[in-house]
Structures are given as C-alpha cells and as structure tokens.
Amino acid sequence: xxxxxxxxxxxxxxxxxxxxxxxxxxxxxxxxxxxxxxxxxxxxxxxxxxxxxxxxxxxxxxxxxxxxxxxxxxxxxxxxxxxxxxxxxxxxxxxxxxxxxxxxxxxxxxxxxxxxxxxxxxxxxxxxxxxxxxxxxxxxxxxxxxxxxxxxxxxxxxxxxxxxxxxxxxxxxxxxxxxxxxxxxxxxxxxxxxxxxxxxxxxxxxxxxxxxxxxxxxxxxxxxxxxxxxxxxxxxxxxxxxxxxxxxxxxxxxxxxxxxxxxxxxxxxxxxxxxxxxxxxxxxxxxxxxxxxxxxxxxxxxxxxxxxxxxxxxxxxxxxxxxxxxxxxxxxxxxxxxxxxxxxxxxxxxxxxxxxxxxxxxxxxxxxxxxxxxxxxxxxxxxxxxxxxxxxxxxxxxxxxxxxxxxxxxxxxxxxxxxxxxxxxxxxxxxxxxxxxxxxxxxxxxxxxxxxxxxxxxxxxxxxxxxxxxxxxxxxxxxxxxxxxxxxxxxxxxxxxxxxxxxxxxxxxxxxxxxxxxxxxxxxxxxxxxxxxxxxxxxxxxxxxxxxxxxxxxxxxxxxxxxxxxxxxxxxxxxxxxxxxxxxxxxxxxxxxxxxxxxxxxxxxxxxxxxxxxxxxxx
Length: 619
Description:
disordered N terminus; flat; Rossmann fold; 15% strand; CATH 2.40.50.1020; alpha/beta; 5-stranded parallel sheet; 25 helices
C-alpha cells in the first residue's frame, strides 16, 4: 500500500509523536541555555559579587537553572524539568526565608511592634487585597514600607510581580511563585493517574474568582488584608502574627489546617495543585490579567485525537471535557506544560496570541519506500498525524503511505490524483466532512473511517466503509483494519448492507444505535434498550447487560425515537414503553415507574411530562 504524507522526507524520519515533537537540537538547546545564563548572571550573580558566600550560592543556583533550561529544550518535556526546578525553588525559598527570620527576629512570629513599624516583607499573594484601598483611599493596608524595608518594600515586590505577569501571564504560578512548588511537590506523591474523581463538579474551578472578589471587598471594608489574617495556608511556612489572644489562636489553627490540607494532604491524594488551582486569589487575578501576556497554550485541532490525557494530567483543572471538545484550555491555565508532556501526538504547544497554527505545514513527498509487489497504496487524510507514525515500514511493511490532505478539498483532489486503494478518513475535516469527500471524489477507494465519534457508524457502513476505528487507537487496531482490507473481510456484504440500508430508510426513526465499546463499535437494536439517561453532560444507553455512553442528547433522541416504543418521562430519562413493569401513584400528580430490568429500576415522572405519560398509559 502506498501512502501520501504532507511532509519532507527528512521530516518523516525525524518526526516523533508526543513530547519529543517539541525537542530542540543540541545547538539550539545550548544557545537558549546560554541566554538564560546571561540573564541570571546579570540579575543574580552580579548583585552578590561583594558577598563571597552569596556569590557562590547564586552561581550554583544560576548553573542549576541553566541546566534545567537545557534539559527542557533538549528533551521537549517541559513539565518534567520545570516541575523539578519549581519544587526545589519553593523548598529552597522556605529553607532560606525561615532561617533568615529566625536569625533576624529569633522566631517566625510577627510582633505588634513589627507590624506598627511596617517592617513586614510583602507577599505577592497579598496584592489582590491591596488594590481597592490603594485606589479609592490611597492607603496601603499591608504593614510594609513603600520603599526599602525587607526585600525592597511594596514598590519592589509589586514591580517584580507586574513584570512577571507581563512576561509569563498565569505562567507565574508555574515558573515564578515563591510557594507554588509546595503543593506541586506533594501532588507528585500521588500514586496512579491524577484524578479528582468521576463525580467532581468542574464548576469548582471558578471558586478562586469568587474568593478573589470576597477578599478584595472585605479587605476594603475592614481596611485590613483579610485573606492574610484568616485564610492563607502559606502562614505555616512563612510568618504569622503573635498568638496573644483567643482570636489569634483560632487564626493559627486555621492556618495549620489549611496548610496541611491544601498544600500537602489534598495534593497528595488527588495529584492536583489544590492551593494554586482552587484557593489562591492571586492566581485568579493573574487569570484575569493573563491576556496581557502574548503566550498561549494551544491545542491543534488537526492533531488532537480527543484521548483526554491532557485533561487528566492538568494539575490545575484548566482543561475540561467541554474545553477539550473545542480544542482550548480555560483561562486558569498556568502554562506548566503537563498537557504537552502527556499528549501522545504533540497536539499541545505554546503559541503567540493572534498567530494561528498552520492548517497544513507539510509538503508532498515522494520515495518514502520503494515499490514492492503486492504493496498497497494508501492515502491518509488529516487530522490523523498519529496515524502516520503507526503506518510506517517497521510496523506495516506491506503498506506504503503516499499522501496526506489538510482539508476536505485537498482530500478530494488527492484521492482522484493518487487513486489510492485505501483511504483512512476522519469524519470531521476542515471545509468538507468525510462523507462529502467521498461523494465528490470520482475515484472510489476502500474506506476506513477514523474518528472520535461513534454516532456516525451506521452511515459509515452505508458508505461501504471497510472499518470504523475509534480514537484513541492503537497499533494493533490499525493493523486489524489493514488486515480486514487485505483479506477482503471488512465492511458489510452487499446483501447485508442492502438490507440494512432498506431497513434504515423505511422510516425516520432510529432502529439501531451505534455505541462505543473499547476500540470497537457495537450496534444495539432498539428492542434491547431499557432506557436512556442523562448524567454529567452525557447520555447513556442501558440494556439488560450493559450501559454505553452515546453522542446523542436526550432532545435529539426524543425527536428520532419511535414514540410508540419510547417515552420521555423526565428531563433526565427516556424509557422503553414495553419495559415499564408497573406504575405507582404516590399522591396527586406524582407517579413512579418500575422497569422490567435486573435491578427493578424505579424512576419518578417529571411534572412537565405528566400529560404524555398519562396518555401513553391511559391513566
């Protein structure tokens, strides 16, 4: 089989799916690391030349950061080495800051005298609480000096933070925050895949914005930094007010509980950065300011296979099922690179705002393999970049990749020009969908549909598809599809196909349902359906033996199901009429149906569906 690829021959030999796609050459990595060393030498080492011990420490730290920079660019694994740096950075800050307090003060306690003398180092987390009092009352409510004082005072820390936000956006939370490495470090202790559990309500990711508003308003009303006074988990590793009253004792207990829970226990249990992702008002403020930074995390639509690994890997809950379907990250993204490391196709990358990805960044190549007797000609239609790596000479020696199209129009043209024997075709293509491509192409190759959606399976077989492969797929699944073509045993026979199409065309109602089971499609007859139920923005089809997710909504099903066989009884349920065993009336206008299934499922009838329910069952 011959295959078309939109790339140069050299690019084919070098292209690797996954994080390695982002790796740089040794020369480029050394050059970028040298730039980092130059910056660090200017701002870190040079400032400490008069102090030999600090100069030695700064030099060692600069060399460490330079080494991490080289490894990030050379390996392409952004998050792995960034995370190592970030955790060491936070641990080093605590190990330096706390002894410094002990040396200068004798303890981590803030006395009233220090507060009145405004001799407290400003923490960037306090900045959101200071904005309203500064703007409307021209008052700095944090006990630090405007200039001078510990660590340069208010203007020095504010300027450093503003520069960081402009340079990194919300990426400050993954590269610059003094304390961010603490919850990240404990999240690495989690065994298995990072998870918040199947029942987690993703709307909780908006909680930091509500917290930001609450602490900004309450701090303005009380003219005191309330988050710092009551809610900051970082007090356990920095400084806290002297415990000289019951109120201060309660505050200390809250700090300890929040510090242990948000920085250590919950990250270790979930594998997520709970403090950064769900409880930091500064992070929420940086999300709002992040558009000022030109860098973005983008998901390439033509390379994404909707495997969900980026969503699982994201430590701050910034990729949801909804955003992934749109090939986007949410505003809370911290640019940490975990999604880039996890993506098997290299679909996630950094990009400049306003500069879109190229729809087709490769050109036609020839001579990928020499012609061999019995070899199949095949064309791959983008977005299926991972497929190219699975269809190489090492895994499928009888297959030759002759081309790839960037969109539906290119697909039609290349199918007719190259006349391949097999087409691996995605259903969702830019311009034209996969079915439109087949209808417009004059050449009629055998077709293997490759898609993330199972709802098109029946139509695919109507188009005489040989196979229907669901994303994410494996080498074994692609080998199976090729074998089906080679043995001419794929697809449906002409007689079976004709009877299926005839049955489907008799009426407008769905009589079969294509559902996903692993890497395969199962066709479920309507007679096997017990009910459809909606849960967590998905609709599930239940039979006596199993339950399957579908791509339908209940509203779509209600319009396409036979009303003599199915009835919607609730906003969350559609039941098979002949599977209703009994109806119980609890009290006026309240009914419960019991289904004839193994569990004897009982469902309440919704008020808005009472009229149709009564009519169907003649109540």
